[in-house]
Hints:
- The complex is a heterodimer of chains A (about 425) and B (about 475).
- Chain A has about 425 residues and is α/β, with parallel strands linked by helices.
- Chain A has 4 domains: about 5-90, Alpha-helical ferredoxin (Fumarate Reductase Iron-sulfur Protein, Chain B, domain 2), CATH 1.10.1060.10; about 100-155, no CATH class; about 165-295, Rossmann fold, CATH 3.40.50; about 310-425, 3-Layer(aba) Sandwich (Rossmann fold), CATH 3.40.50.
- Chain A has helices spanning about 5-10, 20-25, 30-45, 50-60, 65-70, 75-90, 95-110, 115-130, 130-135, 145-150, 165, 190-195, 195-205, 225, 230-245, 260-265, 265-270, 280-285, 290-295, 320-325, 330-335, 360-365, 365-380, 390-400, 415-425; strands at about 170, 180-185, 210-215, 250-255, 290, 310-315, 340-345, 385-390, 410.
- A 5-stranded mixed beta sheet of chain A has the order 1-3-2-4-5. In chain A, strands 7-6-8-9 form a 4-stranded parallel beta sheet, sandwiched between helices.
- In chain A, strand 8 (about 385-390), helix 24 (about 390-400) and strand 9 (about 410) form a beta-alpha-beta unit.
- The mean pLDDT of chain A is about 90.
- Chain B is α+β, with helices and mostly antiparallel strands and about 475 residues long.
- Chain B folds into 3 domains: about 20-105, Uridine Diphospho-n-acetylenolpyruvylglucosamine Reductase, domain 2, CATH 3.30.43; about 115-230, Uridine Diphospho-n-acetylenolpyruvylglucosamine Reductase, domain 3, CATH 3.30.465.10; about 235-425, FAD-linked oxidases, C-terminal domain (Vanillyl-alcohol Oxidase, Chain A, domain 3), CATH 3.40.462.10.
- Chain B contains 15 helices and 18 strands.
- In chain B, the strands form 4 sheets. Chain B has a 7-stranded antiparallel beta sheet, with helices on both faces. Chain B has a 5-stranded antiparallel beta sheet with strand order 5-6-10-8-9. In chain B, strands 1-2-4-3 form a 4-stranded mixed beta sheet, covered by helices on one side.
- Chain B is globular, with a radius of gyration of 22 Å.
- At the A-B interface, helix 1, helix 3 and helix 4 of A face helix 2, helix 9 and helix 12 of B.
Amino acid sequence: MDYSILQQCMHCGMCLPTCPTYDHTKLERNSPRGRIALMRAVADGAFEMNYAFAGEMSFCLGCLACETACPAGVRYADLFESARADIEQAGLLAQPERTFWRWITLRTLFTHPRLLRWTGLGLRWWQQSGLQDLFRSAGLVRFLPATLRDLEPLAPEVRTAFSDALIPPVLPPQNAPQRFRVALLTGCMQDLILSEVNRDTAGVLAENGCEVVTPALQPCCGSIHAHNGEPALAMQQARRLIDLFDPAGFDAIISNAGGCGSHLKKFSHLLADDPRYAERARAWDSKVKDIHEWLVEIDFRKPTAAGTPTPCRATYHDSCHLCHGQKITSQPRTILRAIPGLELVELPEANWCCGSAGVYNITQPEMASRLKDRKCAHIEQTNCDLVATANPGCHLQLEAGLDSPQSPFVIHPVSLLAAAYRNENP
Amino acid sequence: MSGGGSTSPGAGTHEAPRSASAALRDLQRILPPGSLLTEPIDLIPYSFDGTAALQSRPLAVVLAESTGDVASVIRWARENATPVSTRGSGTGLAGGSVPSAGGLVLCLSRLNRILEVDRPNLCLLAEAGVTTQQIAQTAEAAGLFYPPDPGSMKISTIGGNVANNSGGLRGLKYGVTRDYVMGLEVVLPDGDTVWLGSKCVKDVAGLSLKDLFIGSEGILGVITKVLLKLVPRPASKGSVLATFGSLAEAAEAVSRIIARPVIPCTLEFLDKVTIRAVEDYARVGLPLDAEAVLFMESDGHPAQVREECESMKSIALECRATGVREAHSPAEALDLATARRTAFSALARIRPTTILEDVTVPRDRLAALVTRISAIAAAHNVLVGIFGHFGDGNVHPTFLTDERDAAEMERVHRAIEETIRATLDLGGTITGEHGVGLAKKSFLPMQLGASEMRLLASVKSALDPAGLLNPGKILDLP
């Protein structure tokens, strides 16, 4: 734990009103200031890490709203990630079932992209063969272990084609002379369950004079490892990505998922003590751009056709790690406003966490569902046809909450822009 | 920390004596479930407020949900001779809500209902744990205005504002919290609940006892409800930012504006150190090369606003302002005011420990005070950021240091003591709006003198003879 960051917190309380867990309980321990006080007490030897401390760090969403609110510039994400790593190292939460699931996910699936795709294929077969419906209608779900039973309905619909089937390894610029050469990161979840967002991202880049390089098989960025107390695995994944994409060869390395992007921009911090990678990691950080950030930076071409068949009202939900982690708030709105036929309606509490928060909706279902309901109630009240958001976790969470036929449709801003470009030449 | 010698760091995990744990079981029985906290993980986050370098782990924390809970806690505290420190969001800047040694924290953040907006009588009744921001927004929704706006208003509670008689950026024109309190519900140290004041604009029945509790920092009673006066919303507002090449010129401009007389609603000052810290956080376009800026706002009838803004601009230029600009939009003005509110916290970007003072002088002495503070900081080789509400003479010199560096802390303490003496020499006060608490307790006798200290002690003893409420704050009883 970096004591100088702990000390940076002067407990003024400016973070409290922005913290979703404090807002709910009004207990100091559930606030950023309270959590930092506990971490500092551990560092001072005044308090020993225990099960309750571990539970508190799991209760934190890691939404980083407190970082945006903090005038003193406390890097809460660093504190939070190292606290979670210390907790895992001390084995405070260890129990066989949890260890098993962490091994399956963090150590196996999210470090072996090919295996993850095979799992995706298996899940797709399960969903499309009718077996899932049969399993559900026969009531067999109740024979699953409790953890799986709760998660089963959350299983997202796996796409029939993954990113590698939709995007060529090198996509030349479309309808425009080449201005840039960029790499596209396809992500893990985005690749399996929202691969069309990757396709649209590549398309939009090509329309704006970018040659887009998209290797068919890409390692996970490691954000899931960093956020869940596995820094060594996070470093391993960062090295693999840097090996795959030499930053010197690209004008930009594009991410379209808020959660990944926030982590991808911090490789220099993660690999600061690795003499072989530290310098390349700094170059990497300077090249990583969120898609909205990049499009506005290169002054993207404004579409002349509408993105939707009929004029529509759309609202925008800020992904926490896009707005708090990367401070990107105006660019997605600029893109949405540029689409003919689309009226952008500001969402109340747009930058309040939706409760997805990585794996939070699995580990803390009650709080996650409370936040989902709060978010979806605001969205419904806007009476919009669409809600745009730029992170797969948020995307799924909103889809789960907006489940009536009248509910707004969830979509990535870039998919709307891509549709508008496509509609220019019907 | 200045004068903070009387806190005892929370020793922590040792077992409470048998009688204490039995007493806590009694307390548990008389409170709603979930409102008593006794585990270290719950107590540590309640062992400090917004003041640097002061902490003390409480015996337990109670999250009261009603005035009845508060009265039960006070009666329990009397029976068990346990000190009680009341707090809201813990944003105090003088250690006033740091737990008293071995005592209970009574937290009112769950007493957060607005009970009534009385539009015909221009007033609002709220529980003590409602945030200042909620009060301001509720007033605005009713087409009215609640002017006091302390820096921490997004999270500070109205009960805490009343208990500290908080000020804010609009003090010079609109006054401070006291000027808006029409009535209070208070739980007294004997457990009795009293209502003081009324909705009447004029009311001289008996002594003005509510005034005794405004600014009492939790040593006389527990404020549970507040009746607040609201005023009409000003029709328009103008904001001016003036840049200066020296602190003294900016201070001189303030003195001349007041002497004109123009009473703007806000007249804020930031020095170079503070400008850089605030700009680093808020990115609102403050001039980084300036030695000082004045942020000035006028509100009211559009014609009056126009005239006052022109006066302020021309006086700034007379005082050799290097740049003067008006905010182009209400959003830009709000960004500037919001940025200014973060000044104290933003200074923590520079050094880890920020010791904030709250000295205030008559406004024609401002230039003299600021010049002396700069000289004192230079003489002791310590870093100071100076900002504050210059329009009301209230300055916040903030000493930037590291509490782990004992030698530097010693120099800081000497610089603070000299700043206090300089302030008193100029006819000022040691605290304009933060209160005495623990942080300024040792300086209070220097300002008040023996007779006033005796009077203060006799008021405290008369209301709280057992010394249960927030003992050790403001003054030590013999």
